[in-house]
Amino acid sequence: MNRLKLISVLLVATAISACASQTEIRYIQPECAAPPQPSLPTVDAGLLWDNVGQEDYDALMTREKLLVDWAFEMRSMISVLCKRP
């Protein structure tokens, strides 16, 4: 008798799960655009080098290059991710 109850419970559970609605997946593209590039002040490289020295100047130039590269990479990613089909 227990086996019959177990089989009927399993059949009912299977029937109920088969009737469950299927989940619909929708991909939504955000409506966005890359922000405009700001106008940065011009810095005289020679004057900067005279005031901070070679070591600090090189560190600042490396930092500047890394920031610019990162900014262009993020701008490209935003442009690709927000592109409309």
Briefly say what this structure is.
With 85 residues, the chain is mostly helical. Helix content is 62%, strand content 0%.
Fold and architecture overview:
By secondary structure, the protein is an all-alpha fold. The chain has a domain at 32-85. It is built from three helices and no strands. α2 (45-52) packs across α3 (54-81). The chain is elongated.
- Order of helices and strands, N to C? HHH
Return the structural class.
mainly alpha
The largest β sheet comes out as:
none
The helix count comes to 3
N- and C-termini, Cα separation: 61 Å
| β-strand number | 0
Helix content: 55-70%
What general form does the structure show?
elongated
- Structural Rg: 31 Å
Strand content: under 5%
pLDDT averaged over residues? 81
Uncertain segments are none
What is the strand and helix layout of this fold?
Elements: H1 2-18, H2 45-52, H3 54-81
Helix pairs in contact: 2-3
